[in-house]
Amino acid sequence: MKPVLLEFTLPLLGKITFPAYFTMLAIAFIVGLILLERAARSLRISPLRLYDMGIFIVVISLFGARFLHVIADGQLTDYVNLCVAPQKVEVPVGKGGPKTYVCSSSSECGDGFLCDGESKKCYPERDCLTVFKVWRGGLVFYGGFIFASLFTVWYLRRFKLPSWKVLDVFGYIMPLGLFIARLGCLLNGCCYGKITSVPWAIRYGRWRGPWEDHLKAGQIDITSEFSKHVHPTQLYHSAASLLIFLIAYFIIRKRKTWDGQVLAFFLVGYSIQRFIIEFFRNDPRGSALHLSTSQLISLAVIAVGLWIYWKKPSIHNGLKNASETIPSDN
Question: Alpha carbon of 259 to those of 22, 33, 213, 298: distances in Å?
């Protein structure tokens, strides 16, 4: 695909690169902030108050997404070993790996790799900060969602904002953001699917997406220019998120009978499609009980969404949120 969306050179600044995934992720966050500010005006809330909250959410969600990736995607051992025992880390094959795998000196391994004098094999240099280098990839949506949700609930209570009304805004902002971000996943080659023969299957070039996995599994050889055809699960996620946004924004938001209804629809709708599409994915990620980590979290999120539908909190609390004081800019 196209892992680098745009690249050019400027005088004095040199080469400027826009990685596809992080560019689309940035666009998703910017669109979300714009919609959040617009919603604040319609709710008669200080736009700066919600804008500040949005900025914090961006930072916290990135941290949470990285955190869940590290502890749940099955790569925690590699992150630890890269800091304390880099010789134990599996060396990448091909692009991103050493120049050679059998060595007599570190100069033969290339930048970022050293030669083990005993095994005569190249291994990555010690790097205890890799766990913080999110630009290299490794973000899990549910991690960011959980951390951002906890912060949002605290923030809304701290500043006495109309909680369920604001949460409904996130009920349509999040699926729109996911629609945009998943297109970045498609271009980058992450979150790819299983091998398939469906007419809309896609394939990736050398060292992109599932190409290396297919090579290691013996499904292609080192001379293959492309991976096997796989499910475009990124497009499945993106299309489902767009559909959820359209329904949430143009139908439920305009016809809702209680605050929290848009959020509940998003929680249930997104989690159901995520649970189903996970069966078609084949990228490395954590699992338990024969389900992926995201599927297990999806079940919990579905339960939360159904609980909101059952409780209809804004009604059962006497529409408390509707009467909460709208704060000033001070």
Answer: 33, 21, 46, 22
Banded model confidence at residue 330, pLDDT cuts 50, 70, 90: very low
Position 135 scores a pLDDT of 67
* Residue 36 domain boundaries: 19-73+138-194+231-317
Residue 264 sits in the same domain as residue 187 = yes
Beta bridge pairs of residue 235: none
Q: Report the mean per-residue pLDDT for the chain.
A: 90
For residue 49, what pLDDT is reported?
93
Instruction: Specify whether the CB–CB gap between 120 and 102 falls below 8 A.
Output: yes
What values do phi and psi take at 237, rounded to 5?
A: -60, -45
Residue 321's pLDDT is 45
Give me the number of domains the chain comprises. Answer: 2
- Main-chain phi, psi angles of 152, to 5 degrees: -60, -45
Q: Is 124 helix (H, G, I), strand (E, B) or coil?
A: strand
Is 306 found in the same domain as 187? Answer: yes
pLDDT tier, 239 (very low <50, low <70, confident <90, very high otherwise):
very high
299-310 pLDDT tens trace: 999 999 999 999
Give the pTM.
0.87
Residues 46, 116: one domain?
Answer: no
My answer on whether 165 and 105 are in the same domain is no
- Long-range pairs for 246-249: beta carbons < 8 A, 24 or more residues apart: 248/171, 248/172, 248/175, 249/172, 249/176
For residue 214, give every residue at least 6 positions away whose Cβ sits within 8 Å of its Cβ, in sequence order, or none: 195, 220, 224, 227, 228
